[in-house]
Amino acid sequence: MSVSLQAEPIDIAAEYAVLVGEAPGAAVATFTGYVRDHAGENPVGVLELEHYPEMALTVLQSLGRQAAERFELINWRMVHRFGILPVSETIVWVGAVADHRGEAISACEFMMDTLKTDAPFWKREQGPEGARWVASRAQDGERRARWEQGGGT
Amino acid sequence: MAITIKLFASLREALGEGEFQLELGALPPGEVVDGAIKVEAIKAVLSARGTHWSEALNQPNVVHALNLKVVYLDALVADGDELALFPPMTGG
To answer: Are B90 and A51 in contact (CB < 8 Å)?
Structure first.
């Protein structure tokens, strides 16, 4: 039940082992996000991730606690990177342990949908035509809103 | 004591500053009530610094976080508080 903000790549095998621990429960779900090599039609070489460290930590901890309560999780973990991230490297990893698959999968979806709009990180893509800040997408807000309506499961 | 202002991402880049202090005593006295000032009044004070400040801070989707929590424009900011202004978040 913890959060890490880090510059270094995410060691998924190590994170999984910590998440599951000695009592795996019945259902474990994880999600990993990677740096894409394109943004629409434009190639991307490197992604810069700026963050507001103190707020990012408190927001992610709060979202994890909300997920734990909502989906009756046995354990959860969220890891988010910041800094300069080359294409194909990990950006984010979330994991949830529950008694049943529905709760574990939904918890991962909840954590991702809410962190996208609520956690203070900003992406800046660098490509051959220069760098640009990534704009927020309407569908991210829509996915976030589903959880407010008690839906998403 | 003062109010700490933090700017992130495109706002930080556009305004060339990431963090600075605002002395409550230097703010318009009419806006400070019982030692606190609304977020919108702070934005007005900063917007008066020039066109690029005004344009950057008054984009419709600027997010305001007071002491690490997102707030509305009518939230009250006091001495020692930290107010961050930034564009919509795009992590994950």
So the answer is: no
Global pTM exceeds 0.90: yes
Measured between beta carbons, the chain A residues lying within 8 angstroms of B84 are 52, 55, 120
Closest CB from A33, A55, A124 relative to B92: A33
**Phi (first) and psi of residue A98, to 5 degrees:** -145, 180
Q: Which residues of B touch A10 (CB under 8 A)?
A: none
> For tokens 């903000």, what's the residue?
A5
Q: Of 3.10.20.30, 3.30.300.20, 3.40.50.20, 3.90.1200.10, which CATH number belongs to B3-86?
A: 3.10.20.30
As a CATH number, domain A2-148 is 3.90.1170.40
Tens-digit pLDDT profile for residues B12-65: 999 999 999 999 888 888 888 888 999 999 999 999 999 999 999 999 899 999
> Would you say the ipTM is above 0.90?
yes
Q: Tell me whether residues A120 and B6 touch, CB distance under 8 A.
A: no
CB contact under 8 Å between B9 and A136, yes or no, is no
Answer yes or no: are the C-beta atoms of A128 and A46 closer than 8 Å: no
Instruction: Give the DSSP letter of residue B29.
Output: G
